[in-house]
Structures are given as C-alpha cells and as structure tokens.
Amino acid sequence: MSRIVAGAAGGTPLVSVPGDGTRPTTDRVKEALFSRLESMNMLADVRVLDLYAGSGSLGVESASRGAKSVELVEFNDKAAGVCQRNAELVNKVRGRKIVSVQRSRVESFLARVAEAGVDQWDLVFLDPPYPLTEDELSLVLELLGPRLSPYAVVVVERSSRTPEPAWPASLEMFAEKKYGETRLWFAEPAG
C-alpha cells in the first residue's frame, strides 16, 4: 500500500488505482526523490504539476511537504477519480484546497494552458505509461518548456530499460539516478 511519506499528511495511506493501468512509484523511490528535492529547496511554497498522475502520489506528497499548489493531470477515469480522493485527503489536512485534478490528456492540457497564459510551474513530475513512445514524450517536454519558471525542476520517471528522453532545446538534463527497474532524469530550463 502506498502512503504519503512525510510532511503535514505523513503516514496517510493513499487510495490506489485498481487494475494494472498504472505503475505506482515505490515508497523507496519516492523517499529518495523527495529527499533530493528537499535538499534543492524545491518543495516549500512551489507550484507543482504532476503529469500522467496515476494515483497522484507524487503531487500529493508535494502538497503534504509544503507546495503552494499542485495540479494532477490524468486522463483515465478510474485513475482521475483516485487522484480526486487522494487530493481531498491532503486538502483536508492542509485546511484548504492545495491540490486540484484535471481529467485530460497531457498534450491537450498543456495546449490549453499555453493558450490561456497560465502561470508557470516550479516542479513538474512526468511518470508516463510504458506504451508512451519516445517521440510522444519529446512532444510533451517541448510543450512544457515555455510553461516553466526560470528555476524549475522537471523529473521524468521511466523504466530503467528506456533511453534518456530527447530533451528539447528549452530543457537540459542535470542529473539521473537509477533505482532498480526505475530511472529518474532531472532537467532544468536551458540557458
């Protein structure tokens, strides 16, 4: 069972997505990831975007640890419903609506916010499903680039067997870390 590791809602069990349509981030990977983000001062008072959110565990963990706002983007109906339930758990603990859920395809969501001129994000998680091609991931990263704050961090989580993402000119990788079958890539705005 997945849980919120630390922060205001630390220890709270999360609702899981039924079936095999998602691949939850293990608590071990989540603890290591958030330890790194905390050391980079990337959790307190930041705007977070969790794309391909699944159960929303990375986004709600961010909210528990002090994020200013979190948007969970998930297209699958069941998973979006689970995101909503997990968002409500953290929003209740934090005493206000920190986490919101968008039921949408990631590409459509990013196109809409670009047209609307939505504020920029400081921390973005991408944990796309395995069937997503490298070209599709590259397109999402390209759409994301202009929507980032100058000091943003983008974390891409994939199978350790997949190649490094093809970064658009707007992003450059600064670190990667392997945890068993999971690999994390960290990128920041170029320049």
UniProtKB/TrEMBL annotation:
SUPFAM superfamilies: S-adenosyl-L-methionine-dependent methyltransferases. GO terms for molecular function: 16S rRNA (guanine(966)-N(2))-methyltransferase activity; nucleic acid binding. Keywords: Methyltransferase, Transferase. Signal peptide: none annotated. Pfam families: Cons_hypoth95 (PF03602). Its EC number is 2.1.1.171. Coiled coil: none annotated. PROSITE patterns: N6_MTASE (PS00092). The keyword Repressor does not apply. Transmembrane segments: none annotated. PANTHER family: METHYLTRANSFERASE. NCBIfam families: 16S rRNA (guanine(966)-N(2))-methyltransferase RsmD. This is 16S rRNA (Guanine(966)-N(2))-methyltransferase RsmD. It comes from Arthrobacter wenxiniae. The lineage of its organism: Bacteria, Bacillati, Actinomycetota, Actinomycetes, Micrococcales.
